[in-house]
Amino acid sequence: MFLSKIVYLFVSIVIFSLSFVEFTKLSKKLIKNNHIKNFSLNCVFAIYIFFILLIFILGLNDIHFKIILFIILLICISSDIGGILFGKIFKGPKLTKISPNKTLSGSIGSFILSILMSSFLLGYIFNTQLMSNILLGFFISLSVQLGDLFFSYLKRKSAIKNTGNILPGHGGILDRIDGILLGIPVGLTFVLILVFTQ
Questions:
Q1: Which of 2, 42, 61, 133 has its CA 20 to 30 A from that of 105?
Q2: Is 96 helix (H, G, I), strand (E, B) or coil?
């Protein structure tokens, strides 16, 4: 990501292209016998995925933008890890019927780990205010969890477990980045607001 622009660009294009391919397969099972609705849904997702890819391309020559983007990605990943760890350790009541594996303790763990990661990284690198760091971690985790639940809902409606099988034991690319797709724009928007209001 930092050492090679070619690798950075190539990996970004491959990941987002594969996630779009997986989404088109998902949409075929989600919307049957209606090609117009199916095409419209794929177009909306294509525009959104292109918007996310454009964010990565804009950071191609800006090291500061890359650092911010990398921090947001780490906070997104922390949200997923926090959910898994706390969910497996504390278990407890289910969060929703949409995704039976998700628990309330996992959701709380997602917030906690994201806020800790956000506070540590932003406080250490940019020396920003603690409250701003906490809010960034909270909103990124919230968006990651909502993105995850949204795609879980689509998979449930489509009667499929994984969007693909490219990653053994993890499903498809879209299964791995579903929450990140919402976490990145929310995180960047918050950072931009923070920058312009200071």
A1: 133
A2: coil
